[in-house]
Amino acid sequence: MGFTLLAAERESLVRRDPRNSERIFPYLGGEEVNASPDQRCRRFVIDFGQLSLSEASSGQTCSRCCGKESSRSGTAPEPPALPLWRFWRRRDELYASIAHLRRCLVTNAQASKHLMFVLVAPGVVFANSLNVFPLDRKTAFALLQSRIHGAWSWRLSSSLGEGIRYNTSDCLRLFRFQKPIARRPA
């Protein structure tokens, strides 16, 4: 799983070098969304952001995960053509859009037997198997989790066997969110 760690591995890396805690974050994937009632992150992930190889190598984490350790002569390794110590596509815009929210809405993007939305606190690294929405209101959660949206989604999404693969461009963007009805003065 590359940069993913279990809790014990995370603790070991942080004990070796406390600076590692600045780059290890909770990791939320489809397994936690679908199988865990509280969506508690049981895995962690190393995220170097936009650090260069030399900056990322300053802790012990990079050499362990990238398989790049200094040679016996003491010279630094050549940087690879692709930055293997970084996420391929970080989605910085997504993380910026949810940074100010108390929670955001998440659903599994992979084929799943049940269409299920959950509200999750930001501050985690989301797996590419998830759809993350910068919606923090319970009304959005209730509407998207409703039978109306469920029927809409099953009709417009692709499926695999008995599972639905939620398609944001067809299901969410085309779904009509109604404005709340204003109360008239008596």
Descriptive notes:
This protein is of the alpha+beta class. Residues 68-74 have low confidence and may be disordered. The strands form three sheets. Strands 1-3-2-6 form a four-stranded mixed sheet. Strands 5-4-7 form a three-stranded antiparallel sheet. The chain has a two-stranded antiparallel ribbon with strand order 8-9. The chain has helices at 7-16, 30-35, 53-56, 60-66, 92-98, 138-144, 147-156, 168-172; strands at residues 4-6, 24-28, 43-46, 104-108, 117-120, 125-126, 130-133, 158-160, 163-165. The radius of gyration is 20 Å and the shape is elongated. The protein has a domain at 4-47 and 87-172. It starts with a strand and ends in a 14-residue tail after the last helix.
Topology of this protein?
Blueprint lengths: L3 E3 H10 L7 E5 L1 H6 L7 E4 L6 H4 L3 H7 L25 H7 L5 E5 L8 E4 L4 E2 L3 E4 L4 H7 L2 H10 L1 E3 L2 E3 L2 H5 L14
Parallel strand pairs: 2-6
Antiparallel strand pairs: 1-3, 2-3, 4-5, 4-7, 8-9
Quick rundown:
Helix content is 30%, strand content 18%.
**Count of helical stretches:** 8
- Helical fraction equals 25-40%
**SSE sequence, one letter per element:** EHEHEHHHEEEEHHEEH
Strand content: 15-25%
Which consecutive residue ranges, at least 5 long each, have pLDDT under 50?
68-74
Q: How many β-strands, per DSSP?
A: 9
